[in-house]
Amino acid sequence: MNLWRRPLDADRVRPPRGEVRIFIDRCKGCEFCVEYCPRDVLAMSNEFNRKGYHPPMVVKEGACLNCNLCEVICPEFAIYTVPLLDEVVS
Amino acid sequence: MKVEVRTDVAWEQHPMAPYVRTERMPHVWCPGCGIGTIVKCYATALERSDIDLDKVAVVSGIGCSGRAAGYFKLDGFHTTHGRAIPFATGLALGRPQLTVTVMSGDGDLVGIGGNHFIHAARRNHNLLVILINNFIYGMTGGQNAPTTPLTARSSTMPFGNFEPPFNLPHLAASSGAPYVARWTSLHVRRLTWSIEEALDRKGFRFIEVVAPCPVLYMRLNRLGSGVDEMRFYHDNAEIRNGADTRDLNIGFHEPIVCGKFVDEERPTYDELRDAHYREVLGDEYVPAPLEGGMIHG
Amino acid sequence: MKADPAGVLTGSHYLDGDYACGEGAMAAGCRFAAGYPITPSTEVVERIARRFPTMGGTFIQMEDELASMAAVVGASWTGTKSMTVTSGPGFSLMMENIGLAAMMETPCVVVDVQRGGPSTGLPTMVGQGDVMQARWGSHGDYEVIVLSPQSPQETFDLMVEAFNLSEVYRVPVLFLMDECVGHMTERVVIPAPDEIEVVPRRLTSLAPEEFQPYRVNGELVPEFARAGDGYRFHTTGLTHDARGYPVMSAEVQESNVHRLVDKIRLNQDRIVRVEEEGINGAEVVVVTYGITARVARAAIDIARRRGVPVGSLRLVVLWPFPEQRIRELAGEVRAFVVPEINYGQIVLEVERCAGGWAGVRSVPHGGGGVHDPRRLADEIVEAAR
C-alpha cells in the first residue's frame, strides 16, 4: 500500500496475512473473486476443473490480507481464506 | 501461498459449512448468478447474530431464488409459488419464538405473491423478507417479471417490455413495512450488515437484493456475463440512505439507487393483537404460547 | 389422550352446524385457524374468532383463501393443530395448497360448507357438488380423507374424528358439510373433556442426527418433527427423498408418491365408515350422505309403506369410498338408489363398484333445495321393479 506518511506504529503492527484455499472442482468460473480481490491476488487459470470451468489461481504470493472478500462474494462456496499468524517483531 | 486442491468432499472445512447443506453442493444456480452470494451473506449475518439457529426457519417459494431454502442447514420449507409469505405467517403465528425468514424471487414474491406481500406488510407480521431481484423469471426460462425494466427483452416480451415495473422499496414502504432496504449482490459487506441489522428488528423487514441472471436476463438483453453485471453495479449503483422511495425506479441498465430507506419502529401484528385483547378481554385473554400451540400428551 | 378442557364447552346446547363445527375443532385441540369469509361457512370462524383468544388459540383472517390454506400448512409445521373453513369458490382456490399439504404430509383440516355451484352459484343455498372435487381437486396423485356429517351433533363429533384421522395419517382431512347442515340449528350435546379422545401430534423420539423427515422403514406414515426443535429438516412440494431433498427421478417419484396414495388405500378398512339400516333382506339400498340422508329417511318410510323392502347406506366417510361394501351388497340387492344434490357424483363410484351386478339409479338435484321425499320414494319404488 502507498501511504502518504509512514504510520507511527508501522514497526509494531503488520497488516494481516492470509492463505487462500480453493475447492477447485466447485468453481464455476464466474471471476468474481478475481475481479474484486483488493490486492489482485488471483487470476483465472487456464486449467480446467472436473466440470470444464477455469478455476482461479493465486498469482501474487504473500499479498493476501485475509479480508475474506473472495470468500463472501463467491456464489459457489468454493474459496476461502485462513489467517496466517504474524511473526513477533521485537 | 498454498492453493489446496480439494477433489474429495472436504466441504466441512469451509467457514460456512455449519450453515449450509454441504451434501447438496454444488447448488443448482448458474455460473455468475448472484443468489449464492446472497445465501452466503445471510449465513454470515446469522453467524454474527446471537439468534438460536434451531429456531430459525427459512421459507422459499418457487423459482431460482426459491431454491435457497434447500441449501441452509436450518428448518427449511420450499412451498408453492407465491405463497411463501402466508406460509411463513402461519409458522410465525404458530410458534412465535421462531425467527422466520422468507427468501424468494421477484416474480414469486410480488408477481403471483403480490397480494400476500402487501397484506403481510400492512399487518406488519414478524418476517424478514429477502427478495432477490434479477428482473426476470429465471427458472422457467426468462419470462417477463413485474420488475423487468421498460424496454428489456424477455421470452414473453420478445420485442421489449412495455409494462411499467414495480418500484419495490416504494411498494413495501407504502404498504407499511418498517424496514426497507435495497442492495445489490456486489455490496456484500453492506448487505450482510443490513441483514444483521434487520434480524435485530421486528415487524415486516424487507430487503431487496439486485442480482445478476447471466443465463437469462443478461443473455436475452446482451448484457454480458455475471462479472460484467457486477462491474455495472460497481459503476452505477448509488448509495443514498434515506432516499425518498418514490425516486427508486430502476430503468433498463440505468443507475440503481441502493441503501436503507426506511427504518422505523412500528407495532407488529402480534403486539397490536396482544395489546388490544388485553384491553378488551382483560384477564380472560390467554395469549398463544410462544413455543407453539401444541397440546402435549 | 383426553381433550384439553379449555376448548370444550361441555353441556347441552342449541347450535347450528357451523357453530358446532367450530366447537368440535376447539374440542379436538385445534389452536390455529386462518380463513376468509365466504357464505355459508363464515360462522365457523366467527365462532372461533370469538372463543380462541380465551384459550390460547390464534385466528387470523387472511387476505384470501390461498393465503389461508398456506398459513394453515405453515402453522401445522409448528406442531399446532390447524384448520380453515370455506365453501365452493374458496375450495377451488385452496386446492393448490391442499396438494402441498398432501405432498408435505401435513396434518390439517379443511372444512367445505357446500353451496350451489358452479362458480358463484347459490351462495346461501345448499349443494353437494364438491364431492368429486374433494377427492380429485388438486393436481396429481394423492389421497385424502373426506367426511360428511348429517346433523349439527354429528358435525361436532366428526370434527374431533377429522382431526384425529389427520394426525394418524398425516394427511389433510376435508370436511364436507352442506349449507343445510351448516345452518340448521339443533341440540348438540358436548361431553366432558375426559370423554373426548383426541390424538395428539406425535413427535419423533429420534435425535436430530438420526432423523430424516420422510424415512419410513417399511411403514406408511413417517415420523414428525416440528420447526424450531433443532431437527433442521427440509421439506418441499417437489418430489423428494427420505431426507426431504428434491430429487427428479422416476424412482423417487414412485417411492414418494406411491406411498402417499398407499397411506390411505392400504388403510381403507380402518378409515371407511358407513351407517346401515334395514339392509338385511332389502331389495333396494339408498346410498346417501349429508343432508340428503335425512330426506331419504322420509322417502324410505314412504317406500316401505308401499311395500318395498328398502335399506339405507349412509356414507359418513365419503373418501376413501366403501368399495368393498358396495361390491358385497351389489350381489345381494336388486338396485341402488343414489340421491344427491348434484348431477351425479358419488353415483359414479357406486356404479363402478356395483360392477353391473345391481342396478344403479341416480336421483340428481341441481341444488338450492333438497329432494322431495315423495318423488324420491317414487324413484325407490321404480328401482325395485
Q: What CATH architecture label of chain B applies? A: 3-Layer(aba) Sandwich
Helix and strand string of chain A, N-terminal first?
Answer: EHEEHE
CATH fold title of one domain in chain A? Alpha-Beta Plaits
The ordered string of helix (H) and strand (E) elements of chain B is HEEHEHHEHEHEHHEEH
Largest sheet of chain B: 8 strands, mixed
Number of helices of chain A: 2
In terms of per-residue confidence, which ranges of chain A show pLDDT below 50 for 5 or more consecutive residues?
none
What is the level 1 CATH name of chain B? Alpha Beta
**Total helical segments of chain B:** 9
Spans of at least 5 consecutive residues with low confidence of chain B: none
Q: Biggest protein-protein interface?
A: B-C, 49 and 55 residues
Radius of gyration of chain B, Cα only, in angstroms? 20 Å
Q: What is the arithmetic mean of pLDDT of chain A?
A: 86
Describe this structure in words.
The complex is a heterotrimer of chains A (90), B (297) and C (385). In chain A, the strands form 2 sheets. Chain A has a two-stranded antiparallel sheet. In chain A, strands 2-3 form a two-stranded antiparallel sheet. The mean pLDDT of chain A is 86. Chain A is an alpha+beta fold. Chain A has 2 helices and 4 strands; from the N terminus they run E-H-E-E-H-E. By secondary structure, chain B is an alpha/beta fold. Chain B has one domain (26-282): Rossmann fold, CATH 3.40.50.970. In chain B, 31% of the residues lie in helices and 15% in strands. Chain B is built from 9 helices and 8 strands. In chain B, helix 6 (188-199) links the parallel strand 5 (179-184) and strand 6. Chain B is globular and about 65 Å long. The N and C termini of chain B lie far apart (59 Å). Chain C is α/β, with parallel strands linked by helices. Chain C folds into 2 domains: 5-195, Thiamin diphosphate (ThDP)-binding fold, Pyr/PP domains (Rossmann fold), CATH 3.40.50.970; 276-384, Rossmann fold (3-Layer(aba) Sandwich). In chain C, the strands form 3 sheets. In chain C, strands 2, 3, 4, 5, 6, 7, 8 and 14 form an 8-stranded mixed β-sheet that branches. In chain C, strands 11-13-12-15-16 form a 5-stranded mixed β-sheet, with helices on both faces. In chain C, strands 1-9 form a two-stranded antiparallel ribbon. Chain C is globular and about 70 Å long. Chains in contact: A-B, B-C.
